[in-house]
Amino acid sequence: MTGSWWRRNTAAVVALAVLVPATALAVGWREWHEVYDDPSQYTRDVLPDEDGTIEIDGAVLGPAKADTFTEADGFELPDGAKVVAVKIPVDNADLDDPIRCWWPTLVEQSTGREWAQMSNELGLSSDPDVQTECDPSPTGPYDIIVPFIVPDDAEGPFWLDIDPDESDGAFARFPVTP
């Protein structure tokens, strides 16, 4: 064989010098675009109007009402905990395309601490007539009833956040005080 290794592999070395950075840029751009240029990443809260309701994603939600329960009310709770239960009426304006949402989140306004719903842990998930999230089937008005186990030092006021699936980053945010 004649010639040096570099001369014999010039085409492959040039191709690598061009393709490796091009591949890194293409993959990096795609990942950056998915994470930072997705409109759903830009969230905005929608607060209730004067009557306590929020119109979002084709439905009217609210007004939200909250209450506090303890072991004395028949719940088995960890020491130093209580239940904050929130009820939110939902009325789908378009029964052909009902609102879909994830489980609501409870947020303490003063600290930002968050809690997820705990209906399974409290033994409340077996009732088919109780909704803990938006009902995706076309129905008339119904109530979402969501219990949260919070520490005794969580006093409120709280935010109840409901994030619909197709709201382009908007989420319903109800102020609640048990």
**Sheet with the most strands, sense and barrel status:** 5 strands, mixed
- Assembly status: single chain
What percentage of the residues does DSSP assign to strands (E)?
Answer: 25-35%
Q: What string gives the helices and strands in order?
A: HHEEEEEEEEEE
Overall structural class, as computed from helix and strand content, comes to alpha+beta
Radius of gyration over C-alpha positions, nearest whole angstrom: 25 Å
Shape by Cα distribution = elongated
Mean pLDDT: 85
Question: How are the strands of the biggest sheet laid out side by side?
Answer: 1-10-9-6-7
How far the N terminus sits from the C terminus, by CA atoms, comes to: 86 Å
How many alpha or pi helices? 2
Total strands: the figure is 10
The amount of helix comes to 10-25%
List segments where confidence is low: pLDDT < 50 over at least 5 consecutive residues.
none
